[in-house]
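Is this the right way to post structure tokens for a design question? Let me know if I should format differently. Anyway, here goes:
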């Protein structure tokens, strides 16, 4: 594991964007695994700047997102499809039909999960997976549990996740209680993983995840078994 400690969120965003840009440069048809949440927003801003400056090209990139709330469709401004359009896709030259987010409105979520995993396999797997980390150690929406789940699956969100995400909604009751998330299989099979964590509030969970025991109670700890992980942690 490469652990990069920086001082500020700006440095984190810049370094993460440089690593993603490097991936796109060496493999223009990369499959990028993308993440939502507040942490990657600065990284996406940097990527937009680089794209607009002509330094990186998204036209041959495919993206697969980690997760989506159940019951929110892409027109809902709290959905992760909307987030991705708003924070990245609408501002770069990516082909929208090459961007994938699990469908949280699918009638059969199990079938949706199977189709999502099959699609990732068909694409040849993920070249670089960008991850945030939840205060409870979740990656994607893989919450602490008794076991790790491999496949893309429906999850019940932890109270702490609902509370953490309530800031984006008008009221806490509006936060969906379930989601569909990529499981550990596609994440662990990604050729490279880049995890970004911002601020003192994430210090403890980052330490537990990367320097503590590997356990499904701390989902991100499974990344200790991945051969190519870079963690960028901003202290402030
Ligand atoms: P955050 O979320 O970037 O908004 O802290 C991270 C996550 O829950 O995965």
């Amino acid at each position: 594991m490469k652990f990069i400690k920086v001082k500020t969120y700006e440095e984190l965003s810049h370094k993460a964007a440089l690593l993603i840009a490097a991936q796109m440069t060496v493999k223009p048809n990369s499959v990028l695994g993308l993440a939502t949440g507040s942490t990657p927003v600065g990284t996406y801003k940097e990527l937009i700047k680089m794209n607009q400056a002509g330094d990186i090209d998204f036209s041959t990139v495919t993206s697969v997102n980690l997760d989506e709330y159940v019951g929110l469709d892409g027109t809902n401004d709290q959905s992760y499809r909307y987030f991705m359009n708003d924070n990245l896709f609408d501002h770069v030259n990516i082909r929208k039909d090459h961007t994938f987010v699990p469908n949280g409105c699918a009638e059969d979520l199990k079938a949706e999960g199977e189709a999502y995993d099959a699609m990732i396999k068909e694409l040849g797997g993920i070249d670089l997976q960008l991850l945030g980390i939840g205060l409870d150690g979740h990656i994607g929406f893989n919450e602490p549990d008794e076991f790790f789940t491999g496949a893309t699956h429906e999850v019940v969100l932890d109270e702490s996740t609902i509370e953490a995400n309530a800031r984006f909604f008008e009221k806490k009751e509006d936060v969906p209680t379930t989601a569909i998330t990529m499981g550990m299989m596609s994440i662990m099979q990604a050729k490279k993983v880049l995890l970004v964590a911002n601020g003192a509030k994430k210090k403890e969970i980052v330490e537990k995840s990367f320097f503590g025991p590997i356990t499904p109670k701390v989902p991100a700890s499974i990344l200790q078994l991945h051969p190519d992980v870079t963690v960028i942690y901003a202290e402030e």
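Format looks fine. Someone answered above. Worth noting: Residues 37-39, 132-134 surround 2-phosphoglycolic acid (CB under 6 Å). Residues 9-26 form the longest helix (18 residues).
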